[in-house]
Amino acid sequence: MSLIWNNNISVSYFGEAHDPVIGVTIAGLPEGEHIDAEALISFLKRIAPKSCGGTSVPSPRIMSGIRNDRTTGAPLCAILKNCGVEEEVDEPQSPSLRAGNADYTGAVRYKGYCDVKKAAHAPERFVSALCVAGAVCGQILERRGIYTGAHIAAIHNIKDNPFDPVNISRDGILSIRIKDLPVISDRKGWIMLEDISMAAECGESLGGVVECASVNVPCGVGSPVFDGLENNIASLVFGIPGIAGIEFGAGFSSAAMVGSQYSDGSFTDGKGYSVTKTNSHGGIIGGISSGMPITLRAAVKPPKIGGDCVCAVPGAVVCVEAAVNIALLSNMLDYPNFC
């Protein structure tokens, strides 16, 4: 099992699902970057919205990599208390199938040596570690005017208003962050909460979609083929538990288009930049950013029935933001005059 994502920036988790603490190490961060501890904690609080019955996420303890609120250039190491751990009686576990769990596949993959019951929950416990890394990377990007934000695009069959793929703004992104339920339309958010409540009463669970956008990413970030910007983003997003699919720009709907519909005609704006009239390409062409907003959507599957979580979509919003922040900063370090 790999707990390391490696590019210009390396993010590695440590610990196990049932350990008292888990942690994350972030290597490759530029030195001298100011890290706001309160902003970091605020980012983590968004993992579990109160409107969905979420509980508080513990504050990380920074062990290395930051001195006097600035990065030192050494790997940043943070540990977090694992609040989901409870003392359990040590009983033999059998690889029985529980709907929606990786019990059987995990037992087969690790030849029965893993703790079947506990290992099945392993990825869920590392979302806070991912978000620590994403929050740090996000602060470094925002100091250079690059902002990433996400919202609940849909829960079950209830859809929020979508981002405008051409005219997404920094202020629009920030306005969603301050909401307890990250939606553009509050009315749609109330309906979503009612649907979640009804599902809980019926013993059901719900999935949905997270839409994410990054603004002010300059043209020329990323590389073709296997080092494409969308490749890096996707690899991190798929590290989030419950993610079932991802699409950029027009995504799968482009399959029903003709070429003239998909092609984004370009023109020169008032500042002399080449921009496109539409954004079917989602801000990335040939693995390289185009200067248009980067847009993507990630599908979140329903959690296992009978678990503590009825719908993981609200918490997945900040996780997707974190993943995109890490991928963007990792690619931006190659960009001329970034640091």
Describe the structure in your own words.
This protein has a single domain, classed as Chorismate synthase, AroC fold (4-Layer Sandwich), CATH 3.60.150.10. The protein contains 9 helices and 16 strands. It is 27% helix and 21% strand. The strands form 5 sheets. A 5-stranded antiparallel β-sheet has the order 1-2-3-7-4, with helices on one face. Strands 9-8-10-16-11 form a 5-stranded antiparallel β-sheet. The two termini are 34 Å apart. 39% of the residues are buried. Helix 1 crosses helix 4, helix 4 crosses helix 9 and helix 7 runs antiparallel to helix 9. It is α+β, with helices and mostly antiparallel strands and 339 residues long.
Describe how the helices and strands are arranged.
Elements: E1 4-6, E2 10-14, E3 21-27, H1 37-45, E4 61-64, E5 66-67, E6 70-71, E7 76-81, H2 103-109, H3 116-119, H4 127-142, E8 147-155, E9 158-159, H5 170-177, H6 186-201, E10 208-215, H7 229-237, E11 243-248, H8 259-262, E12 266-268, E13 274-276, E14 284-285, E15 288-289, E16 294-300, H9 313-332
Antiparallel strand pairs: 1-2, 2-3, 3-7, 4-7, 5-6, 8-9, 8-10, 10-16, 11-16, 12-13, 14-15
Helix pairs in contact: 1-4, 4-9, 7-9
